[in-house]
Amino acid sequence: MERPLISRRELLKNAAGLTVGLGLVISLPVPHIEGVPRTDGLVLQTFVRVFQDNRIEIVVAKSEMGQGVSSSLALLIADEMDADWELVSVRLEAELAAYKDPNGWGGTAGSTSVRTQFKRLRKVGANVRALLLSAASQQFGIPHQDLRAERSYVFDKNGQRLASFGELCAFAAHIPLPTAVSLKSPEQWTLIGKDTASKGSRAKAEGRVSYGIDTRLPGMLYAAVRQPRVFGARIANAAELQDKIAAPYRLLQKDQTLFVVGPSYWQAQNLIQALPVRYDVPNVVRESQQDLIEAKLMAAVRREGGISVSKAGDGKGALGLCEQTLEAEYFGPLLAHHTMEPMNGTAWVDAQHCEFWLPTQDGESSLALIAQTLERAPDTVQVHITAMGGGFGRRIEIDYVEQLIFVAKNIGVPVQLIWSRPEDTQHDFYRPAFAAKLKGGLSGQELRVWSGKNAGPSIAKRKRPSLELDRSSVEGFAETPYDIAHFEAEHEDLELGVPLGYWRSVGLSQNLFFTESFLDEIAFAAGRDPLALRLSLLKGKPRLQKLLERLREVSQWETSPDRQRMGMALLEGFGSLAAMAAKVSVVDKRLKVEQLWCVVDCGLVVHPKGAEAQVQGGALFGLAAALNGKITVKDGQIEQAYFSDLPFLKLADSPRVEVVFMPSDAAMGGLGEVAVPLAAPAVCNAIFRATGQRIRRLPIRDFSFPS
Amino acid sequence: MTEVNFTVDSSGARYAGDEKKPLLWVLREDLGQTQTKFGCGAGLCGACSVYVDDKLVRSCVLPISTVQNKVVRTISGLDDELGQRLKAAWERFEVAQCGYCQPGFILASHRLLSQTPPGQSLKWESISNLCRCATYERMRRAIEAVHAERPSP
Fold first, then answer.
1. Residue A678 scores a pLDDT above 50
2. Cα A581 to Cα A12, A503, A525, A603, A665, distances in angstroms
3. Treating both helix axes as pointing N-terminal to C-terminal, what angle do A363-373 and A399-411 enclose, rounded to 10 degrees?
4. How many CB pairs under 8 A join A and B?
5. Do residues A271 and A249 lie in contact, with contact meaning Cβ atoms separated by under 8 Å?
6. Is B89 helix (H, G, I), strand (E, B) or coil?
7. Which of A3, A214, A433, B81 supports an S-S bond with B34, CB 3.0-4.6 Å?
8. Which of B15, B28, B40, B113 to mutate to test the interface with A (most CBs of A within 10 A)?
9. For domain A290-335+430-702, which architecture applies?
C-alpha cells in the first residue's frame, strides 16, 4: 500500500492557508497524477479530513438530491473509523476524475450509490482507523492490538483514554498507511443499520442549504432561456430580434435557443418572454398529437410481431389449450420530472477561471462536455456539484449545462442560467408513453399461460441509435417474479418525436402497472384472492413469500373490515424486493387513497431512517403520478406549463404510509426507486375491488367514480 | 424607479428600482438572501412563501411596492416559539429530503398552527404547497407532534 498522497488541490488549499486547523488529509494516489486510474491501491472516492479539534469532515462525491447519500455514504466511513457521528460533518464535493470509482460511473442514478460503494467506503474508514491506531501505538509505545478506537478516541486495553483522533493526526500524517487492514464484522457496527441521525435535517429546516440556484458570485449576471415550444421549430426572424434588447441586457442565440443575459433574472425573463419571435414549424411536427401518439402505441400492441424478449415453455402458443383466456390493454402516459428547483447552473469562464457550479446527477459527463466545448484539459476545469432540489432522473441530462457553457463563454463574467417553470415543463426528457396488451390462460383456477407485448419508445437509442433492444423498455415486462409454465413477452420500439429520459424507476414505472394490474385481473377471473394467487406462483422463492406474508399481516389483508377496498402489487427490481397494499374509498364520487403499506427486503438496511424516507417518498411520488401525472402533446408542443396544469399530490390528499423492512442476508439492493412503480397497480387494484371499475390507463384522475 | 423601505427578519432593507419586481427576486437578487426559493414564478407551489406583517404570501407574485414600510419574515427570521418548535420537529422527524420546498412548508405550517387552537383538528387542505419528494408522511407527523405539545389555553 502506498503512502497517502495529498492531492494537488489540497496542496493548493494548504499553501493558501484556506483550510485552517488541518491536521491530516487522507487522500489517494491521484489518478491524474499517476496517469491511470488504479484499482489496487487505496482509492478513495471520498476524502476524510480529521482536524486537530477532533472534528471530522467526510466528503461525499455523489450527488445529493434528497435521497440521503450524504448520510448513508458518510456513515459507512465513519462506522469503520469508529468516529463520533456527532463530530462528523459532510461536505458534498467531487473532484471527479480523481475520486471516481475506478469500476463505476461517476454519476448518481439507478438506486446504486450505497450498494456499489458499500465495501469501498468502509475500507476507506478502516484504513483511517488503522492509521490512527498505529499513530497511537508509536506515540504511546503500546502494541497495536492492545488499542481500540471508540467515538473518535483511542483507548488502551484497560479502558484508559489515550488521545483523540484530532490529537493523533499530526503524528499520523507522517507515518505510512498500515497494510492488511480488516473490516469490522456486522456485530461491531455502531452506525450501519442503527438509528443513525441524518445529516443536514436542521440546515434544510432553516433554509441554510445552498442549492445550485443559490450560488452567488461577485458581479454575477443572470440568463433567462427561451426554447421553441414546438419540437423541431426554427427561429424565422433572428435578425429582427437583436435590437429589441437594450443594454445592460444582451441577447444571445445558440441554434434555436435564445438567451437574455443581464443583472436581474426576473427582468431577463420578462424581456425574453416579450420578444416577438416567429418560428417556422415543420409540417411533420404539426401532426404530433396526443391521440395519434396513443393510437400508434395501441396499434403496435395489437399487431403481431416485434422483438421476442423472453419465452418459457410453449409461450403464447399454449393459450389455445386453455379452458379460459382473458386479455386486456393498458396505457401509461408521458410524465415530467418536475423537480422543485428548476434546471439551472452557474459558471465563471474567463482567462483566469473555468469553474462551474452544477446541480447535476452527472458531474462526470458535465466536466467532459465543458472540457471538450471550451477546448481545455479536464484538470483545468473545476466542477462543483451543488445540493439539488430534486433530481428524479432529470439531472442525468446535461442539456442545461451545454447552454450554460455557451452563455458563460460569451459573457466572460460569472453568470447563472435559470429555466422558468414552463421551460422546465416543456423541455423535459419525459418518461416515455407506453402501451401493453396482455393475455392470460387459465386451467381451472391455475394460471398456466402469460403472454404480453408492450410498445413504446426507447430512451437509450437517443445516444446509441444502433441499440437493438433497450433493456429499460422491457424491465419488469420481459420477466416477472412468478413461476408460470408458459410465458412470452414481446416488445416493439416506436419513435414518438418527443424527447425521452430516465424518470425515477424508469421502465418499471409503466411496466409494473401493466403486469401487476393484469395479474389482479387474472385473480378475479379465477375467483382467487390476489395475494394468495401470487403466493401460489412463488414456490421456491422464500424471500418473496415471506415478503407477501408480512404484507398480509401489516395490512390485515384478510381480516381488516376494509379488505374489500384494498389492492396490492409486488415488485422485484433494483436488487430489492418490495410489495405494497393500498386502501381507497369513494365518497361523494371522490376517490381518496387512505393508506399505503410497503414491505421491503433490500438485504442489509444501511441507514434505516433514510431508507424509510426513501420508501415513503417513493411510494407517494409514484402515487402522485398515478393519480394526476400526464404530459400531453398538441400540435407538436407540450400542453402543460405551470403546476396549475398538473394538479399534484398535496399534503391533505396524501395517505398515511407505513413502511416495514425485512432485513435479510441477501445481496444489498437499492431503495430510491423501489416503491415508485408499486403505487399505480396497488391503488388501481384497490379501486377495482372497491368500485368494480378497472383502470387500464393512467392517470386515475381521467376517470370518474360513482358513489 | 421606486424606492421601497421595509424590514427583512429584523434588518432594515431598501430597494430602488422597478416597482413591479416581485419580493422574491428583490430578496434573492438585490439583498442576496437565497433562503426563500424560486419554484414556479406563478404563486402555485409555495416554495417562495414568506410572511408580510402577519399575512403569509407567495413572494414570487408579490410586487415589491406592496411591502413599503412592512415587515417581511422569511424562514431565517421565523424564530418565535412556534417557529423554533417547528424547526426542531422538522429536525427530529427528519422531514426533509431534498429540502428545497421545506422553508415554505414550515412557514405554511406555522400559519396553520397559529390559526388552530390547541386540541382542535388541523385543516390540512389549508397547506397548498408542493413537495415533489413527497415528504408528506413525516411532515404530518412533525406538525401533529408540535400541535399536540402546545399547552391548552
1. yes
2. 55, 23, 20, 21, 24
3. 40
4. 174
5. yes
6. helix
7. A214
8. B40
9. 2-Layer Sandwich (3.30)
Distance from CA of B45 to the nearest CA of A (A): 7
Bridge partners for A260 per DSSP = A224, A251
Residue A271 to chain B, least CA–CA distance (Å)? 13
Residue A346 clears pLDDT 90, i.e. is over it: yes
What is the pLDDT, as a whole number, of residue A138? 94
Q: Which one of A269, A340, A656 has the shortest CB-CB distance to B132?
A: A340
Q: How far apart are CA A156 and CA A133, in angstroms?
A: 10
pTM for the predicted model, two decimal places: 0.93
Query: Residue B51 and residue B67: Cα distance in Å, rounded?
Result: 11
Pick the CATH number of A8-205 from 3.90.25.10, 3.60.15.10, 3.30.365.10, 3.30.200.20: 3.30.365.10
Look at A651 and B140 and tell me if their CB atoms are within 8 Å. Answer: yes
- Report the pLDDT value the prediction gives residue A102, as an integer from 0 to 100: 61
Asked if the model's pLDDT at residue A287 lies above 70, the reply is: no
Count of residues making up chain B: 153
Of A342, A610, A620, the CB nearest to B136: A620
Inspect the interface and report whether the beta carbons of B76 and A623 lie closer than 8 Å: no
Q: Is the pLDDT of residue A22 over 50?
A: no
Identical fold between A8-205 and A212-281+343-418: yes
The answer to whether A481 and A578 are in contact (CB under 8 A) is no
* pLDDT value of residue A101: 64
Domains of chain B: 2-76 (3.10.20.30), 78-148 (1.10.150.120)
Amino acid letter, A430: Y
Q: Which residue of A has its CA nearest to B29?
A: A264
Average pLDDT over residues A256-278: 98
Kindly report, residue by residue over A308-341, the tens digit of the pLDDT.
999 999 999 999 999 999 999 999 999 999 999 9
Using a CB-CB cut-off of 8 Å, the residues of chain A touching B31 are: none
pLDDT per position as a tens digit, A33-90: 222 232 222 333 346 888 888 888 888 878 888 888 889 999 999 999 999 999 999 8
Where does A419-461 show beta strands of DSSP type E? Answer: 434-443, 446-456
C-alpha cell at A171: 503524528
For domain A212-281+343-418, the CATH architecture is 2-Layer Sandwich (3.30)
Using a CB-CB cut-off of 8 Å, the residues of chain A touching B86 are 205
Measured between CA atoms, the residue of chain B closest to residue A214 is B34
What b/e string do you get for A230-269 counting C-beta neighbours within 10 Å, with b at 16 or more?
Answer: bbbbebeeeeebeeebeeebbbbeeebbbbbbbebbbbbb
User: Under an 8 A CB cutoff, do A418 and B38 touch?
Assistant: yes
Residues 6+ apart with CB under 8 A from A431: A334, A335, A336, A500, A501, A503, A506, A509, A510
Beta-strand relationship, A415-418 and B2-8: unpaired
Q: Which of B8, B94, B110 to probe by mutation at the A interface, max A CB count within 10 Å?
A: B94
Cα–chain center distance at A548? 26
Which chain B residues are within 8 Å of A216, Cβ to Cβ? 32, 34
DSSP, residue by residue, A23-41: EEEE----HHHHSS--SSS
**Domains of chain A: which residue ranges?**
8-205, 212-281+343-418, 290-335+430-702
At which residue does the C-alpha cell 415589491 appear?
B64
> What ipTM goes with this model?
0.97
pLDDT tens sequence across B36-95: 999 999 999 999 999 999 999 999 999 999 999 999 999 999 999 999 999 999 999 999
CB A406, CB A254: distance < 8 Å: yes
pLDDT beyond 60 at A118? yes
Contacts of B87 in chain A (CB under 8 A): 202, 205-206
Closest chain A C-alpha to B123 CA, distance in angstroms: 8
